[in-house]
Design a protein that fits this description.
Distance between the termini: 18 Å
Order of helices and strands: HHHHHHHHHHHHHHHH
Strand content: under 5%
Shape: globular
Structural class: mainly alpha
Number of strands: 0
Largest sheet: none
Helix content: over 70%
Radius of gyration: 21 Å
């Protein structure tokens, strides 16, 4: 698998696209009155395409993609090395790997909130956006506004309690941490088992036991990633023709776009078969198909192996961490400054543009910090060497 590092570059592009979808999803929630609840009328080709495009603005599915990718990347090294020392090192590295950036993000959010005050409430009143009025579903009171509180949240509470007063998108970090821990135990066992019948039986049993309640349903995402990692490591992922890639990719995007809340006609067939309880598994299936296409079709793999994919991968985690505080503070300030002259629609465009630009500008130095921190952790916490073992080059978020 000498080429494995290069073969995983398309997954970096996928991670970056998922991060962009989350940003656009939150911008729609913040600066449009109906959020993502708009239902277009019409049954023709244009109406169907519009419904599909709206469905792609699916923040929940994008988060599922993040977790499936984490399961894939974190499982892959155990295809070659299943020593206890590797498991121990992986467990010890995971919290500091995540906590460095979450601390920076929470302190950054504290600074922005202190500067912008309650501007987001005024903007929410003008727009009529409930998500913005609730500070991104993370209401915060004046007594919470301390740098010590931000430090505690980013260092500990976001992982142990799921507390997200300062930076609401960090609700995923607790799931990321404990989902990673589960994979560090599960992946070595699954790789060691030779029978695919037993492997898949154990995965299905684990998903069934975890259930469909929050947050345990997300465990399925990581296990789907582990199954894909085993297929990849053992050379079992199919090589797809262009026609097969288009068909599977289209189905993957259709499943990705599925939400039970939006009343889009294109999803009616799925809703006849599934209740809202199983929506999450639809996203897992969509993520799996998209990954299979990215790694299995030569033409698509080549497109997604360019420098843009590498950059998207490097920036994806910082963008995800920073975009919430920026759009809630700087975005709201930009909206209120522009609404008098540009009107609500024009001010919303201004707020979204400022939020995107500032997020990109601030993500660049944070990506540099992340790279240095990841490299330092890899040097300090390295499992003892094994003769003949060659490290697998991982994608960024699995480092």
């Amino acid at each position: 698998m000498a080429e494995s590092g290069r073969k995983l570059v398309p997954l970096e592009g996928l991670r970056g696209i998922a991060a962009a979808i989350v940003v656009l999803y939150h911008l729609a929630l913040a600066f449009t009155p109906k959020g993502v609840g708009v239902v277009p009328h019409g049954y023709g080709a244009l109406g169907t395409f519009t419904q599909f495009a709206l469905g792609m603005l699916n923040g929940g599915a994008a988060v599922a993609v993040f977790f499936v990718l984490s399961g894939f990347i974190l499982s892959l090294p155990f295809g070659r090395d299943r020593r206890i020392s590797r498991v121990v090192v992986a467990l010890l590295k995971r919290w500091p790997r995540l906590a460095c950036l979450t601390v920076i993000a929470c302190l950054f959010a504290f600074a922005l909130i202190s500067w912008s005050g309650h501007e987001y409430k005024q903007a929410a009143h003008v727009i009529g956006a409930g998500w913005l009025a609730s500070h991104g579903n993370s209401p915060i009171r004046p007594e919470h506004l301390t740098w010590e509180g931000a430090l505690r949240e980013g260092l500990v509470r976001v992982f142990t309690q799921g507390e997200v007063k300062f930076d609401s998108p960090l609700w995923t970090m607790r799931i990321e941490l404990f989902g990673s821990f589960a994979i560090f135990f599960a992946a070595p066992v699954l790789f060691a088992i030779g029978s695919w019948v037993i492997r898949l039986g154990l995965v299905a049993l684990a998903i069934y036991v975890a259930g469909t309640g929050y947050p345990f349903t997300f465990f399925a995402d990581f296990l789907v990633g582990t199954v894909l990692a085993m297929l990849f490591a053992e050379g079992r992922l199919p090589e797809l023709s262009n026609k097969a890639a288009v068909a599977l990719g289209g189905m993957g995007l259709y499943l990705f776009s599925f939400t039970y809340e939006q009343k889009l006609l294109i999803h009616a067939p799925l809703k006849l078969l599934l209740s809202a309880t199983y929506s999450h598994y639809v996203w897992d299936a969509g993520a799996a198909l998209i990954i299979i296409v990215l790694l299995g079709n030569q033409a698509i793999r080549r497109v997604f192996s360019g420098g843009w994919a590498v950059w998207l991968g490097l920036l994806s985690f910082p963008i995800y961490l920073l975009h919430g505080p920026i759009l809630l503070s700087a975005g709201s300030v930009a909206f209120m400054d522009g609404v008098g002259t540009l009107g609500v629609a024009g001010a919303a465009v201004l707020a979204a543009s400022c939020s995107i630009l500032l997020t990109l500008v601030c993500a660049l130095p944070l990506a540099w910090v992340d790279k240095l921190w990841t490299r330092l952790l890899s040097r300090v916490m390295r499992p003892p060497g094994r003769a003949g073992a060659k490290p697998i080059k991982n994608a960024q978020a699995g480092a």
